[in-house]
Hints:
The chain has helices at residues 2-19, 158-164, 166-178, 193-203, and strands spanning 43-49, 57-60, 64-67, 86-89, 107-110, 120-133, 136-145, 185-192. It is an alpha+beta fold. The chain has a five-stranded mixed β-barrel with strand order 1-4-5-7-6. Strands 2-3 form a two-stranded antiparallel ribbon. The longest helix has 18 residues, at 2-19.
Amino acid sequence: MRQFLLFSIFSLLMTFSSCGEKDSQLDRPSDPYAVASTEGDALNVIVEIPAGTNQKIEFAQKTGFASDTLNGGRARVINFLPYPGNYGFVPSTLMDRARGGDGDPLDVLVLSESLETGTKIAAKPIAALLLRDRGEIDTKIIAVPADSSLRVFDVGNFLDLALENDAARSIIETWFLNYKGPKQVELIRWEDESYAWREVRKWKTD
């Protein structure tokens, strides 16, 4: 019993320490898809870009977290207002180009206070924002922390967002339609949390 307890404690400590590492352990871990939550099912989301910054940071399998670069190696900076939430991706998802995706993991915007790059957070999808970017459909999952104490305002589903917090919904929409410059991104429509979950399941890789 004592040996089992020591092993359990060691495993837990290793789990906590790995959350802060910015290496391959964050690249689609084996169990990232659904996590238990008192608020219902939630996703693990890996944060690339903290809320409130203009720096474009991306995760790559070989290099980990790094600034996205433009031609000439210059770091890419969003020439607009800072990100209105924590921007990242759902591990173990891939929007396959052969099925109409953009070749990247599914994007998520987590509405909470700023989280460090590399943070793994359990988040609850509340909406999906469908955009058209360079001719491709680009879906953004809008989510809030599964832990309601970490939420910056009281919203738990799409109706809460659209009816009680429409100003926030409008800000998110306006931001995504303008962060790449005027008329670069086109709005298709908004969808609810059920659609958001269908998107996650559609692009799930394991």
